[in-house]
Amino acid sequence: MLKTKVAEALNSQINAELYSSSLYFSMESYFHSVSLSGFAAWMRVQVQEELLHAMKLYDFIVSRGGRAVLEAIAKPDADWDSPLAAFEHVLRHEEEITARINSLMEIAAAEQDHATKIFLQWFVSEQVEEEAAAGEVLSKLRLIGKDSSGLFLLDAELGKRIFTPPRQQAA
Ligand code: OFO
User: Fold this and answer.
1) Which domains does the chain have, with CATH numbers?
2) Tag placement on the chain: N or C end, fewer CB within 10 Å?
């Protein structure tokens, strides 16, 4: 059975993951509005991954006899000054999520909840990948600068990203 502090922290993380999903859905719409369909496709995969993160938390809470409680999701930004500004936001956001996962891990450790610590290890590793993926696109955008042909090449590259369905992911 989950202790109250751990259950509350896990529930709060469901909300954070749903917000991440909403933020990236909003970015997908922004990229469509500036005719960068590859960036938009990259964001759609990100939306799906964030929903998966929320569902993993939900399933874990339920499997431990807890009750998943859903709350209102904050309204995400709708516009960014440039693709660079959007990806600066992505990296900043992922760093905030990493900090949240780390503090969740500390709560689980303080409560001596070893099962939750093991479960959260997947999120710790995932955050390394999330920050690396955002950082890579951000670095390329900085190199590209105002070169529109570079931007279109990156758009084509990002458009190749595909979502790996949950059953094929190492969980
Ligand atoms: Fe982007 O990793 Fe979840 O929130």
Assistant:
1) 4-158 (1.20.1260.10)
2) N
